[in-house]
Design a protein that fits this description.
The structure holds two protein chains of two kinds. By secondary structure, chain A is of the alpha/beta class. Chain A has helices at 4-8, 16-22, 39-46, 58-71, 85-88, 109-119, 186-195, and strands at 29-33, 50-55, 76-79, 93-99, 120-131, 199-206, 208-209, 218-219, 225-226, 235-241. Chain A has a single domain (4-241), classed as Vaccinia Virus protein VP39 (Rossmann fold). Chain A is built from seven helices and ten strands. The longest helix of chain A is centred in the N-terminal third of the chain and has 14 residues, at 58-71. Chain A is globular, with a radius of gyration of 18 Å. By secondary structure, chain B is of the alpha/beta class. Chain B has a seven-stranded mixed β-sheet, sandwiched between helices. In chain B, strands 9-11-10 form a three-stranded antiparallel β-sheet, with no helix packed on it. Chain B has helices at 3-22, 28-32, 40-46, 63-70, 82-95, 109-112, 133-143, 209-219, and strands at residues 53-57, 74-79, 100-103, 117-123, 144-155, 184-186, 202-204, 222-229, 231-232, 241-242, 248-249, 258-264. Chain B contains eight helices and twelve strands.
């Protein structure tokens, strides 16, 4: 999932969906929120964007800077919580980008949307591609054999006290820390962005996922994960613009 | 006339005859006595309609249309079932509540109605009868005044993936979420309101939530909100339970059963 040597050798870590839907980024300034250790940020820079990556993990930002140095791809990396970003970064961007596994770490969607709107130039756009919130309602334990509703689509107080669990990229590795996660319904994401002043351009849903959400999923040769029959939406993407007033 | 449209029209003519006397969900006597048939979600989210012109698409036999008029709207209701429109006109006459009713397929509406409205409204079980969502959205914006808004409250498409066989006791994924090339055909199903087996077949389309939002945006509307609710207005799945206010719930309110969208021109 995180192929660092492939990336260093020139491989783009971005997936087809975001490449197509974000479009040409050449010469555009791009803010990548929750960038982890920056391979996607640097992939945008390789495609011509002037990119800034932000993450709250200092280890992730340190690694991102190392990768930037080693590959010679220029990008700014800032260690900051999303909500604190307006205090440490004074710039506006053509594009704000975020992707795959970001929303569950956000306690407050309204403030998140306000931060996004704050960093966009008028006429600029926000793009997110993310796991579909429907995915979260089904049991994802290692032992489940079929789709079975276990969690709430709306709110799961249990998730605030998450036990250490298998890493999504390396199932045999169990982290030492528990996690706090939040469920965010699709409507809340859309409405938070609109209330922050953005205008919806599209809301797309896809039957493929970016990771093995349930043990009975299968991976296609191109990489995305499928459920038998492609019955459910596993991924969504959304584009919203900041109006020019 | 298109085969699906023709059969669905016969289906809704049959349903109208059943619903006029079904009571319960369609409480005609209660409505005549002054009861508002609109539900709390749309009443709160639509806000004050006093003095506003309102176009009600897919209005069935018009009790909701007339309920908006009781609240001060100048309403026009349209439906493709002639029996439904006949009954709507009859109810309008009997109650003395003024409203216009037009019998037309939604896609033909621009050729028979030349007017623009403050509000276009549609609700509860409408999208499944539409063969073309993009054209539907274009018709909505066509009938809106600049500054006017569209409002829909509808069954959440996520609910439609679950098996609704009467013997099922918990959510089990059975149907695909995504749009199919052809509509699904249902026959010999019990009427959702009266429980009586319906003789005419029905053809239904299904639309993912993203398609609904994006069709409205592409037509030129600006989305104002997308809300999701863990309740619905009828027993959509056999294991739902009714609360004292008449809403149907899944245990723990874990799934979205209804959504609403407001979008402005």
């Amino acid at each position: 999932m995180y192929d660092i040597s492939g990336f260093k050798a020139g491989r783009c870590t971005l997936q087809n969906k975001e490449l197509e839907e974000v479009g040409d980024v050449k010469g555009k300034s791009l803010l990548h929120v929750q960038c982890h250790f920056g391979m996607d940020t640097l992939s945008w820079a390789r495609l011509g964007a002037k990119a800034t990556g932000v993450d709250f993990s200092d280890k992730a930002i340190t690694l991102a800077r190392t990768l930037s140095k080693e590959t010679g791809i220029k990008a700014d990396f800032i260690e900051s919580d999303v909500y604190a970003l307006p205090r440490v970064l004074d710039k506006k961007f053509d594009i704000v980008f975020t992707s795959y596994g970001v929303l569950c770490w956000l306690p407050d969607l309204s403030r998140w949307a306000q931060v996004i709107a704050h960093f966009l130039k008028p006429g600029g756009f926000f793009y997110i591609i993310e796991g579909h919130p429907f995915v979260n309602v089904f049991d994802n334990s290692d032992s489940v054999k079929a789709l079975s509703v276990r969690w709430s689509y709306f709110n799961n107080p249990e998730w605030l006290d998450g036990e250490p669990s298998g890493d999504y990229a390396d199932h045999d590795f169990v982290g030492s820390q528990g996690t706090c996660e939040w469920a965010h319904p699709l409507g809340d994401v859309v409405t938070a962005l609109i209330q922050a002043g953005l205008q919806m351009e599209f809301l797309h849903e896809f039957a493929t996922g970016f990771f093995k959400a349930y043990p009975f999923m299968t991976q296609s040769e191109e990489g995305p994960w499928h459920l038998d029959g492609d019955k459910l939406p596993l991924t969504f993407s959304l584009k919203a613009v900041k109006p020019v007033k | 006339m298109d085969k699906y449209l023709q059969e669905n029209k016969s289906h809704w003519n049959e349903l109208t005859t059943l619903h006029e006397k079904s009571g319960g969900m369609y409480d005609v006597a209660g409505f005549k006595a002054g009861k508002c048939t609109l539900k709390a979600i749309e009443l709160v989210e639509m806000g004050d309609v006093k003095g506003k012109s309102l176009l009600h698409l897919q209005c069935h036999f018009g009790m909701d249309t007339l309920s908006w008029v009781r609240r001060g709207a100048k309403a026009t209701g349209i439906d493709f079932s002639d029996k439904a429109i006949d009954l709507a006109r009859k109810l309008s006459k009997e109650t003395g509540i003024k409203a216009d009713f037009l019998c037309t397929d939604i896609y033909d509406l621009p050729s028979v109605l030349d007017k623009q409205y403050d509000i276009v409204f549609t609700s509860w079980g409408v999208l499944t009868w539409l063969p073309d969502l993009d054209k539907w959205a274009q018709i909505i914006i066509h009938f809106l005044k600049p500054g006017g808004f569209f409002y829909i409250v509808e069954f959440h498409p996520f609910t439609l993936v679950f098996d609704d066989t009467p013997t099922i006791t918990k959510p089990e994924v059975s149907y695909p979420y995504f749009q199919l090339d052809e509509p699904l055909k249902f026959e010999n199903q019990p009427d959702y309101a009266s429980g009586i087996t319906v003789k005419t077949a029905e053809y239904g389309w299904q639309y993912p939530l993203g398609k609904v939002v994006t069709a409205l945006v592409n037509a030129g509307l600006r989305i104002e909100f997308l809300h999701e609710f863990p309740v619905t207005c009828y027993k959509a799945l056999p294991y739902l339970k009714k609360d004292d206010d008449g809403w149907w719930h899944l245990e723990g309110d874990r799934l979205p059963l209804t959504f609403s969208i407001k979008a402005s021109k």
